[in-house]
C-alpha cells in the first residue's frame, strides 16, 4: 500500500480547504469555475496520451448502446428508447472506472498496466466499487420500471411507433403532461445519482474506504457548491447527448469525460500517492 499523502493532480486556483471533521469523512477543497475547464482539458490530454485505451472503453459504450437499442426494437418497445438512453447514462460512472485508473496512473507517473486498467474495479478488493456499481444498475432498472409505468398510465400497454409518440408528446395535453412528469422524475433520479457518484467512484478507486463514506463525501461536496457542480453536470449531459445522437462521437466524448471526472475529483479531494 502506498503512503497516505494527498496531492492535487493539476494546478488549480482553490480557496482554503474545508477542515477535516471529526467523523473522518474526506472534505473537498472549494473550487472555482475555471477549475472545471482545467479538469476537462487535462482529461483531454489523458485521452490523447492513451487513445487506444480510451477508444476501447468508448467502443464498449457504443456496443452497449447499440445492444440496448436493438433489444428495444426487437421486443417492440421503441417507446422506451429515451428513458433507456437516460438509464444508460446513469450507469456511465461505473463503466468509467478503467478510465479513472488510467488518469490516476498518469498523474502518479505509473506505467499504464493493461491488467490493472481492465480490472480497476477490483482495486482494494473491489467489494465497495461493486456495491456502488450494483446500486447504479438497480437505480437504472428502477428508472426503466417507472418509465414503463408512466407510459402505461398515459398510453396503455400497446406499443406506439416512435414518430407517433413524439407527435403525441409535442401536440397533445396528455402528451405534454407525460413529458413533464417523466422529466421531473428523471431529473430527480439523475441529480441523486450525480451527487452520490460524482466523487464516490473515483474515491473508492483512489482510497481504501467504504462506500458509505465515499457517498457522503461526494454529496457534501456537491451540496457545498451546487452551482459549480451542476454546471459540470450540464456540460457532461450536453456532451453525452451529442455523443448519443451522433453515435460516431460517443467513443471519443465518453473517455474524455471519464478522464476529466477523475481530475475534477483529484482537484477537489487530492490524490493519494501510491506505487501501484
How would you describe what is shown here?
- The chain has 13 helices and two strands.
- It is mainly alpha-helical and 276 residues long.
- The chain has one domain (6-10, 28-272).
- The chain has a two-stranded antiparallel sheet with strand order 1-2.
- Helix 3 packs antiparallel against helix 7 (127-155), helix 5 (97-108) packs across helix 10 and helix 8 (162-171) packs across helix 9 (173-197).
- It is globular, with a radius of gyration of 20 Å.
How would you summarize the topology of this molecule?
Layout: E1 6-7, H1 33-49, H2 51-74, H3 81-90, H4 92-95, H5 97-108, H6 114-118, H7 127-155, H8 162-171, H9 173-197, H10 200-206, H11 211-224, H12 226-246, H13 250-269, E2 271-272
Antiparallel strand pairs: 1-2
Please bin the fraction of helical residues: over 70%
The helix/strand order is EHHHHHHHHHHHHHE
Overall number of strands: 2
End-to-end Cα distance, whole Å, is 8 Å
User: Count of helices?
Assistant: 13
Structural class: mainly alpha
What is the number of independent domains? Answer: 1
The biggest sheet, with number of strands, parallel, antiparallel or mixed sense and barrel status, is: 2 strands, antiparallel
Strands of the biggest beta sheet: in what spatial order? Answer: 1-2
